[in-house]
Amino acid sequence: MVIHKRIPGQDRASVIEHLRLSPYTLLMTTPAALKASFRLLMTLALATGLSACASMPHKTPPSSNPPPVETTTAVSQAPMAQRADQLMITGHYQEAAKDYIHAAADVRGQAQLDYLMKAAQASLKGQKPQVAILLANEVLRLQHDNASLRGAALWVRAQGLMDQGQTPSAKGNLEEILTITSTPQEVRARAMGTLATLYTQEGHELTALNFLIERDSLLGGDAIAENHRRIHVLLDQQSVAKLQNWQGRSGNPLVQEWIAIALITRQNPDPQQRQTAIRAWLAAHPGHPPINFSDDDATVAGASALNRAPGGICALLPSGGSYGPLSQAIAAGMETAAQLRSGPAVRILRSTGNPSYTAVLFERGIREGCKIFVGPWLPQDINAVAAVRKPSDPPVIALGTASDVQQPGLYTLSLSRDVAARQIATQSYAAGYRHAYVLYPQDSSGAAIQADFITAWKHLGGDVSGVTTYLPGRSLTSKAQQLLSASPGRHSFVFLVTDAKNANSAVTSIRLINRTVPVFSPALLHGAVLPSDAQGLSGIESVDMPWIINPGQSWPQASLLLRTNLPNASDAQWRMAAFGLDAYRMAERVLDQDMSGSLNGATGVLRFAADGRIVRDMEWMEVENGRVVPLSGVPGPGA
């Protein structure tokens, strides 16, 4: 029996028309508005008979590999749903989610639930975790007796919660998945592996060990070897006293056996004696079920994961906000380098900027065979990875800096203009300059760059003779007069932070006050091209990467290939692509354990420093009659 409900204050036609439009706003609106719009969708569903879905026949959706399970509809698909399926195949996830929501508005019963589930899965893949969670919540609220569908919704909700850093809630969803008897084996194994990661991060290593050992029976082939690697790594991090304490706390005989073998391994460094001791222990404990364990496992305990795990170079990059296009360019640079050098393949791991999820991605990459990571980039992500990274884990080339983070195997290749600022300070002082006049814009980026310069300059013993800020887009004449009120001497220069929009105005204003003082600028104009009218920049000197001066000369094949891969790249993306080229080549050197010498890269001459930094020396250049002219070094005082 179908129960029809009257929608107060609206007729059904007007509601349907609203629902045909509202899905396009679902992925962009606020959570509160999203909930209101989706409640309206569910009200219409009830009015058209969704309340009777419990009595309707259900089909069990087939599992996919890798998980999570994708749902299938119980009726023939409508054109809207078929188009959504094609959008999913081509990677247009947000558009697919909108079409699935449209399709759900036109059907009822199990088909509607399936479309909503697909919309949730598409939203998650389209990096809209909030939307995915809300859609999964509706599926969980409305479904009645389809355990497989419930498991799929719980999986999506757990992934969305992890993306947002809500790991305690994510754990609850993952643990509930394990209680559903129809959960496919591969999904159950994946959930256990994720739970082990989350519990390890929280300091509950014994609980994590239980999950890893329980999932062993669900795996096969290379996955078992990788799971054993994770077990060994976890056990290797514990003290003998803690392992002995665990022996009395775990009721799982398999866990007791693994702990016993770990203790025997610690006490018997000689391989032959160790194998004898393990066999003796097993013979003395015949009641233990046979574990999925080989003699070779004991010999690899504590060995480097880098030497065992197959795989390539993994880029762990932020995908949200303004970082998305820049990360895309870095990845394109790395993939271009891999293609031209016929080297290890590049795998892209996209983080959301949430530190907890970045740590989960890092550990997932290790399990899936990453030999080295390029990234993370953001300070909070670097801290999160450093907190979970073990000495046996693969090396990392961080693309930014985080205070007090220093580990063996963790290298830093900074993409920030602070590198250029410090280079100007160091090389200018070495060339004989002693007095700096600083002019920078009133924004967070300008403040950070000038602070890096002044810190390095004062540390060397240089004098800061004046500091003035300006508002971008305003006249700089009065600011230049204020800055240079005391005529600069022979050993002075202006440190100018600017971009393409303000460069001509800044240099022209300085030249009106003083025609001879050198003007040094970090990372010239942010990008790959000069302003359309660069005549006013004549005389400005800068440090920047060879790629910006002449990309065809730095790496001709890479420049041509990248123009194909990034046909509409912005100046900032073109710059980041060069970093991707160099990051890949430095990653190759780390894998080859070749830390000596230097590399003539697209972004400068790179070399490894003793503290783990990858030092990048850029080229000096001068703007002369609107053209960039490379210089052999920093111009000397009075030159």
Topology (SSEs and partners):
Blueprint (H helix, E strand, L loop, with lengths): L11 H10 L1 H4 L4 H17 L31 H11 L3 H13 L4 H16 L3 H14 L4 H17 L3 H13 L5 H17 L3 H11 L6 H15 L3 H8 L5 H15 L3 H14 L10 H6 L4 H4 L4 E6 L4 H19 L4 E6 L3 H13 L4 E3 L4 H10 L7 E3 L11 E3 L5 H14 L3 E7 L2 H17 L2 E8 L6 H7 L8 E5 L3 H14 L5 E4 L17 E5 L1 H4 L1 H4 L1 H10 L5 H21 L7 E2 L4 E4 L5 E4 L1 E6 L2 E5 L8
Parallel strand pairs: 1-2, 1-3, 3-4, 4-5, 6-7, 6-8, 8-9, 9-10
Antiparallel strand pairs: 10-14, 11-12, 12-13, 14-15
Helix pairs in contact: 1-3, 3-7, 4-5, 5-6, 6-7, 6-8, 7-8, 8-9, 9-10, 10-11, 11-12, 13-14, 14-15, 18-27, 18-28, 19-20, 21-22, 23-24
What does this structure look like?
The chain is of the alpha/beta class and 639 residues long. Helix content is 53%, strand content 11%. It is built from 28 helices and 15 strands. It has a seven-stranded mixed β-sheet, with helices on both faces. A five-stranded parallel β-sheet has the order 2-1-3-4-5, sandwiched between helices. A three-stranded antiparallel β-sheet has the order 11-12-13. It is globular.
